[in-house]
Amino acid sequence: MLHEPAAKTGKDPASPYKMKLGVQMFLIYAIVYSGFVAINVIKPVLMEKIIFLGLNLAVVYGFGLIIFAILLALIYTSLCTKKEIQLKNEEGNE
Amino acid sequence: MFILAEVQPMAVAIFAMFVGLVLGLSFYFARKAKSASGYFAAGGTVHWAVNGISFAGDYLSAASFLGICGMIATKGYDGFLYSIGYLAGWIVALFVVAEPMKRLGKYTFTDALDAKFESKGIQFAAALSTLIVSVFYLIPQMVGAGVLVTPLLGLEHYVGVIMVGIIVITIVATAGMTSTTYVQFLKGSLLIVFSVVVVAYLCHAGLTTKPDQSGTVPFYEYKSLAAIEANDTITVDGYEFAGEFADGHFVKLIKDGKTSWWLKHKTEDGLKLEETQWITYKDGVKWINGAVASKDNTLRQVGNLEKIKGKTEATGPINPIKFLAILGDKETVVKRWAKAPTFKDGNDDVTVFYPKWNTGNEILRPGQKFKVEGTPLEKANFVSLMLALFCGTAALPHILIRYYTVPSPACARKSTIIAIAAIGFFYILTLFMGLGAMSSGVINLESGNMSAPLLAKSFGLFLFAVISAIAFATVLGTVSGLIVASSGAIAHDIIDRFMGVKMSDKQKVISGKIAAFAVGIIAIVLGIIFKGMNVSFLVGWAFAVAASANLPAIIMLLFWKKTTAKGITASIILGMISALTIILLSPTMYTRYGLNPADAPIPLDNPGLVSIPFSFLVLVVVSLATQKDNAKLEAQKA
Asked: What percent of chain B has pLDDT over 90?
């Protein structure tokens, strides 16, 4: 017999949607992250270029990656929550 | 006698208050840890917001707080690459791992991997990987505890290690994951709040070319002597030339019978000799800068700006953006310090610390540590590290177990988002704290890891006491999480599931507590054995091993239906072995063995670029070869 989760979780009809969305967002972030690594390897001197307010590309891209992660996370959870509510309502109406 | 330094009563009081609070919470929550679910997973009842900050408290280890700030302080932007990579790893955790892990698992990530198969191979391999990764992570935390306790409480290294061990064993053995959660929550919150305070002080103080630690330590002006080199000798006014050392990098001068060491520095105005600092061991006695080492004769703290955008005026209070813009300016000149390899002067061992100059644009981009402009191999090393950081987080067992402490997959998701926001914000602060230490004359030449607490000290003893107590709490929070993860791997994965020992719920809790006690004792012993060794690289190992052993198994289980139990087992074992083999045969390890790094059979220092794809490949090949197993499993279910 298989073991059970610590807290019982019911069926999650939004699961396939969330998984697909998660993979898409992961790929978007992975591409942006790879861009950062690629610039450093291919043309590192580009990182010195001042972008705005006296900040160079290294700082803007580095902070950008952190802020972009937070933004993507917020978008992801709001879309997931919306879908969960929508499917729950649909289930209730049936 | 084990009292080493002047004890800061305020630091002791704040530290004692924190420990008292933590232990009080542990005893209060002890009644909640009567069941296995309560002990290993806090009953799955932790609020997602609390869990999110606890994630931050668990993740932001001594390596993050002390290590990253220290590396930025000594190497500039390269240290910040760790912040970027560590945070990016949470994206994998959120988008790919969080909800499925919660849905499939019970107490440990082995549960999730094994949910579909009930395989002894997976149970053993995943538990072994948990233990190896956790021990690699534990050692630097325990050594860090010993390092911190000396300036904070004036105690010897081993006393600090034993103290942390006892406190953590008490935390984990009383209320398991529940008390661990609240320790991590407290520590995570305090770390972020007080890091903001340090950065606020830093911006308010602004930048100056003559930092004096808020007037408490006068700025030391290092001498620069004009010299003439001719016929294998160097002539300097007022000094007697006594030879060149370390391939002609350093010059020994004598004045009034006193020896001093100088760096040869060729400038546009001719040869200059720059004043250094040095440690000499004479007949086993430590001398610093020409006098016997003592509490009053230590190496001077260093790091300052010689030019601020081409000028030498102090800026006064500045905003955070201006702070970074000034430090990254090509007319800003940063004076850093480096440690030369120890050389012989007669029977004496001499280690010289010498100044280096970089312009701001060089400091605020990669290149001082990672040779991104170097050979293809050096570039491959950099890519490999960034890959391991990206893939490692979502595969760290002590992080994954936090998914079982919340009530639902949606809560697992939400708590990950809180974690990303909290950790991301903290990592942005690391750049300010590191660069602040680099420019404020607070870097301890013998341990860059103390840069953040020493920066806080330059703003006042109270802030130093609080930051040091938090740094200590950082160790408590992370070690508690690691011991819970190890305890789960031993008691739940190995004894209960792999060995099939039948236990009641109460017996499971007791075996978990015994396992926690045993791992705690091992951690204490390792923390004492590894004293004095720079073991922060072990955290890098933990990431590389976790990314190579665990992540391919997690990803393929979720996204490839043909994955088999044997495929997962082989991928974990071979991923772990390949990562460890590459590390042990790498140039860095050859240097540590005292061998020539050029003789290392594997030229890569960071294994991720090879071992992660290799582990995926193993899983695919073995799974395709064992498809019959899945067919049997399907038939049994039907």
From this structure: 38
pLDDT value for B363: 93
Domains and CATH numbers, chain B: 9-22+37-206+371-637 (1.20.1730.10), 224-299+329-363 (no CATH)
Closest partner residue to A12 among B321, B379, B409, by Cβ?
B409
Candidate from B408, B413, B558 with C-beta closest to A9: B408
Nearest C-alpha of chain A: how many angstroms from B567?
A: 20
* Whole-structure pTM value: 0.89
Containing B116, the helix (H) or strand (E) segment is none
Q: How far apart are CA A80 and CA A72, in angstroms?
A: 12
Residue in B340, B402, B308, B378 with CA at minimum distance from that of residue B108: B402
Of B87, B106, B427, the CB nearest to A5: B106
Cα–Cα dist B367/B385, whole Å: 14
Q: Which residue among B44, B424, B431 sits closest to A70, beta carbon to beta carbon? A: B424
Determine what percent of chain B is predicted with pLDDT higher than 70. Answer: 97
In B489-607, alpha helices (H): 505-529, 537-549, 551-559, 565-584, 587-593
Burial class (CB in 10 A: 0-12, 13-18, 19+), B48: buried
CB contacts under 8 A, B 81-140 vs A, are 81, 83-84, 87-88, 90-92, 94-96, 99-100, 102-107, 111, 115, 118
Which of B45, B59, B77, B84 would best serve as a mutation to test chain A binding (most A beta carbons within 10 A)?
B84
Which residues in chain B (279-338) have CB-CB distances under 8 A to chain A?
321-322, 324-326, 328-330
Neighbours of B483 (CB within 10 A): 29
| Helix B461-488 vs helix B120-153: crossing angle, to nearest 10 | 160
Q: Scan for tokens 């209730």, then name that residue.
A: A92
Cβ-based contacts of B497 with chain A (< 8 Å): 3
| Shortest CA gap B64–chain A (Å) | 15
Among residues B15, B14, B251, the alpha carbon closest in space to that of B145 is found at B15
Averaged pLDDT, B200-229 = 91
CB atoms within 10 A of CB B455: 32
Least confident of A29-33, B120-124, B564-568, B593-597: B593-597
Query: Inter-chain contact A47–B95, Cβ cutoff 8 Å?
Result: no
**Average pLDDT of span B432-451:** 89
Q: What is the pLDDT of residues B221-257, one digit of tens each?
A: 999 999 998 888 889 899 999 888 888 899 999 999 8
Instruction: Report the sign of the C-alpha dihedral through residues B141, B147, B151, B154, in that order.
Output: positive
B94:A76 CB<8 A: yes
